[in-house]
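Researcher: Let's do a round of design. I'm pasting the structure tokens now; please hold your answer until I've finished.
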């Protein structure tokens, strides 16, 4: 008896047949797109592609793929990839109107297209070109104006902590770059380039911490958010919540968060007071290379706060902190008695 081979069809890698970009501030200004409108801007419609055949035009803003709402270009690409080939309803905004179009997604390999160019209006291509030219500011501005989140973030880094840098980080954050949100949050917390706004700082740290399906999370945003809850800055003090966030950041690799969780646990009030757990977290931070973790352990053993006084042990921790460049730790070690 001969068994016939069964050939399994490879999954279809679908395409919508468009070039997409995130909605930049420049797009909103020139195309009159309100700030509350989320989605992905259709930059180019491929000739003979699914979107074009269904009546989607350049300048439309895609807001939904099937029953999934989308926030940016990456969301659209992911939603299309998950569906595979076949019919899907696209929700879009055109001018002030909300429209739907039924699109038949097809195999992407049917379209052999060259990668976009900066000259052709591809923001990501402008960012790559800027990288190849020493992070050229002119090219980064162009990339950001075209809606590329990474380009906006890099532009913010180049422009620094002034009003222009804050505007670039805001565009990066709006386009789905979590570190852009975190950096802008820091500027609002410290009044750099913008007026101090602690509510905005907390909101932006939260956005950075939450991240997106496409960009992942920014752990520094989580740690900064936890500090606000720990110290009651711009929000009601909540040490328990702060420790929970610090611990999560610690597990994700932020050694500074390990030290912060440890210190908060040791000196915290009520049910958050946990000396053994706090010491373990401080040790983890110190062992991971966090100078403050080693320094705080040194202070604990120097004065016998919450632990038995142990000068040799304190000296050891101060040395570890000193060796990593903490001048105060060097001085405290030299003056131990």
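Researcher: That's everything. Go ahead.
Model: Designed sequence:
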């Amino acid at each position: 008896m001969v068994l016939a081979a069964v050939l399994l069809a490879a999954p279809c890698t679908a395409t919508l047949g468009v070039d997409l970009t995130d909605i930049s501030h420049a797009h909103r200004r020139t195309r009159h797109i309100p700030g509350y409108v989320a989605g992905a801007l259709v930059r180019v419609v491929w000739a003979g592609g699914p979107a074009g055949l269904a009546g989607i035009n350049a300048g439309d803003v895609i807001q939904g793929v099937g029953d999934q709402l989308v926030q940016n270009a990456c969301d659209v690409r992911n939603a299309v990839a998950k569906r595979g080939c076949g019919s899907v309803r696209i929700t879009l905004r055109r001018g002030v109107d909300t429209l739907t179009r039924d699109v038949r997604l097809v195999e992407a390999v049917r379209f052999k297209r060259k990668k976009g160019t900066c000259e052709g209006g591809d923001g990501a291509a402008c960012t790559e070109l800027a990288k190849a030219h020493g992070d050229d500011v002119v090219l980064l501005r162009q990339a950001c104006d075209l809606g590329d989140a990474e380009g906006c973030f890099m532009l913010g880094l180049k422009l620094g902590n002034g009003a222009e840098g804050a505007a670039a980080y805001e565009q990066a954050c709006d386009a789905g770059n979590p570190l852009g949100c975190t950096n802008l949050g820091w500027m609002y917390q410290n009044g750099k380039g913008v007026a101090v706004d602690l509510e905005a700082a907390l909101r932006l740290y939260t956005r950075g911490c939450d991240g997106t399906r496409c960009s992942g999370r920014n752990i520094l945003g989580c740690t900064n958010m936890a500090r606000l809850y720990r110290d009651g800055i711009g929000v009601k003090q909540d040490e328990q919540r702060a420790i929970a966030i610090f611990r999560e950041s610690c597990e994700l690799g932020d050694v500074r968060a390990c030290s912060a969780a440890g210190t908060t646990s040791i000196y915290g009030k009520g049910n958050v007071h946990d000396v053994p757990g706090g010491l373990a977290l401080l040790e983890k931070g110190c062992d991971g290379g966090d100078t403050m973790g080693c320094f705080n352990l040194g202070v604990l053993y120097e004065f016998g706060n919450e632990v038995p006084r142990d000068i040799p042990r304190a000296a050891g921790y101060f040395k570890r902190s000193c060796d990593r460049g903490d001048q105060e730790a060097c001085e405290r070690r030299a003056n131990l008695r």
